[in-house]
Amino acid sequence: MKERQFLRMQNLPQLIKGVQLSFLILCISSISLFAQQDKTITGKVTSETGETLPGVTVMVKGTTTGTVTNMDGNYTLKVSESVAALTFSYVGMLSQEVAIGNQTSIDVVMKEDIQGLEEVVVVGYGIQKKLNLTGAVEQVTSETLENRPVSNVQQAIQGVLPSMNFSVGNTGGEPGSSMAMSIRGVGSLDGTDAPYILVDGVPVSNINDINPADIESISVLKDAASAAIYGARAAYGVVLITTKGGKEGVHVSYSNVFTYSAPLKLPEMMNSLEFANYFNKAGLNDGDSAPVFPEEVMGRIEQYMKDPSSINGTFPEPGNPDRWGAYMTANANTNWFDVFYKDWTPRQTHTVSVSGKKDKIDYYVSGGYYDEKGLLKYGDDEYKRYTMNSKVSSDVNSFLSLRANVKYTRGVTDRPSYDRYLFYHNIARRWPTNPLYTPDGDYHPSSEIPFLLSGRSKSTSDNFQISTGAVLEPIKDWKINFDYNWTVESNIGNNHDGSVILHGPEGITYSGRTNTSYSASASKKTYSSPNIYSSYEKEFDSGHTFKVLTGFQQELEQYEWLYASKQGLITDEVPSISTATSEQDDVGDSKWHWATRGFFGRLNYNFEEKYLLEVNARYDGSSKFPGDERWGLFPSVSVGYNLAREDFFNVEQIDILKIRGSWGALGNQLGNKNEYLYLYVPTIPVHTNNWWIMGDSRPNYASLPGLISPTLTWAKVKTKNVGVDWGIFNNRLTGSLDVFERYTSDLPGPAEALPGVLGTSVPKINNTELQTNGFELVIGWEDKINDFSYHAKATLSNAKTKVAKYRNPTGILNTYYEGQELGEIWGYVTEGIAQDDSDFDNWYDQSKLSGQEWRAGDIMYQNLNDDDVIDWGDNTVSNPGDKKIIGNSTPQYQYTISAGANWQGVDFSMLWTGVAKRDLWITGPYFWGGTGGVWQSAGFKTHLDYWSEDNPDAYYPRPYLTNGGKNQQTQTRYLQNGAYVRLKNIQVGYTLPKKFVQKLKLSKVRFYVTGENLLTITDLIDTFDPETTGGSWGAGKIYPLQKSVAFGMNVSF
Q1: 122 and 30 co-located in one domain
Q2: pLDDT grade for 696, boundaries at 50, 70 and 90
């Protein structure tokens, strides 16, 4: 060490001399540079066709000095003599670098970026250039889906594809939950209008089994012309997902997202004193002789509110000292939503992939892990997903290529066994006076927490998919494809309801559950499909291009389900069927299958990408129909005309102006509901555990089969679509407009009623028709200024469905009727809230709505049919009494606004989604508070704005607990505005400079922070979120959606 220091000291004089020399050279160079003269460069920028290009960015290479061309394509730029080159860049054109040398005038001819014009879109059994599409197709790429803090594919594409409609189901925002999907509005009356989903050409039943990070692109085939090639299962559109593949070289990437989620919307409960006063007031309005909360309890509540440490929250129940008091005998102050839901919960996602392409082999292999913790504080809920995706393809020789795809997904759900839908229902009617703990420190029995902790419900699903294929090319451009797809989906579930020990005063314990139990289920679904199809494409020098595709597909799906349950477990430590002691088992099973065969063909023609034609036909057979009705032919045709390609079209600013039109027909198999699986075969219902005892057991039994319709056959879905696509200012301004009509006929509906002596119901027949009309508008802008690029996009779509035909001879409003627009809300027109009892003396007779006394604070309804009586008439279209159509619950004018920018590695993006018009009629205690008696009512802060003499301008009428129905008639005053706009996603990221990354032997490193559902603007009453107004037990009684903030990283090697 000392020797090295000595050597460095010896070299110090030489080092100082070197620094002095360097400084001298720097000074001389600076003087020389200062002495240099500037010069002015001028020029003109044009396209290959001679058109001048305004707005071209002209930059001094390696600096931020530059200018842009004017409207005539001219530019002027003052530069130093030392500048070596200029760069020219323009959206839609290839960037160029031009050496200056001694030139002072530089004209540049820019070439089109062919890649943009050659952009391809995945369609049925192949790809097409976007420029040549004639059907209604939209596509989103991985760039749009990446880095969203979402749990599944549905959440990633919600709001991104304007034609897709999503609705939150009864599971709400539970870990692992899914949403219902449809394309272009409602297509059926029984929910069988879901799109056909394929991943790499293989059908999937759950789109959320796919890791979003594996997706390369998603195409949506919206009209019959584009979907017809898939035939029997594509009546309501097709979603085509293509996963990533190998690219030149070897690439390794890793990405992660760490997310922190919080409930998006929870009701704000009244405190105990507000709640007690509210219930007492409502009870007295019902005519109760005694208050719900007696004076003594009210005093305890007030004392607890002032000082919780001065008094217990509960005392032994009067009349039953072995139990702790609850509800109207307790005096705590508990916010049960705060008790049961966490303030925030974590999620994490990890994906690793290896891909590459060398010589004749390309491959992509990835593994994904997703872990979502739920919001429940007690009895933690969780969902985990494991994914594996493997794709390999090889060009064996010049005429043969092989491929194999293997995908595997495991989903594991773990939650409390306590009925979760009942749990959401019970939170709403949990009284704040109930304490969380007893004075002894145990969970209070009314909290239901012991039940949440007493057992688990677990479900494990496995989805294994293999797809193999070969492509034979006997001669150039003639390809023959052989595919075989095989999928196995299995699910194993179990539910353990364990023993529950509840605690009373003085150390007393008692059982909270009569019988412990264990149930198990197992299901397996297998799908197989061989395909063979051949295509030939020929492009002639004269500009004519033909492509012909023909093929055959066969499908077989089989399903089997087993179930067993038994009560009386010997121990909760080893819950199983064999450790249960009850003599009676509850067992059952189910099985079904279906099959299809189809022959299909497609012809594509274009002339110079100017005149476009596509013809499709599919001849399908389905096992669901009888032999004479089994087969159907479903044709489609679409045409396109790119006016901007005509020689006479001299509008320089317009690059693309394509007009499209299509018509097509598709068959609908009526879905996979059990009632539609064996339409022509009498089925015998088999039941277990009959109600009567024979010998020592309750026997299984069978009932007579119902009648069948021997002529029930395909529903027909016919679609018309007219569209226009445009690209302006060198495709910086792009967009499309589609207007469509979908007419569905021969849907199953009620047949003519027969006399009751028949002894069974009349089978359905093909007699129902629906008509859907709508439009989709997309407008986008993309540009670049120097090294700053930005983009913006807006979409607007709408679809309305009417019942064109339905058997309802009386026109009763309780079911569908001809001319009905789906989502219609019939109700009364509200005059207002009566301010005095005498207001009803000279008002119309409302006694048919309620025989109770009408008083100040009650609702006054308008008389629309001038008969002096407020009623519903015959409750028919022709005589609805004083009812009328007051709104529609179908979301109307759904829109999105997105924007983003990128500057020197810093990127920003945001996505807003919304619904411009929607009416909601919301019922139940979440909305009304007092309804259904003391045990079915709720008390939220919003309910405190009720009518009284001191609050005459209140929102709510006089509160009741049991007689409130008269004020809760469907009416205009309380019809909710369900329109909203939501900041669906906002993201800021930074990509490290390449020079720095390459030193680390990496190809890309990006960090980002992103938020989901962070802001919602709506006029909807504060209790509800606009996307979760449903629930199995009533409106709002549902697992909350979440807002989230996430931090992520992408690393590529």
Answers
A1: no
A2: low
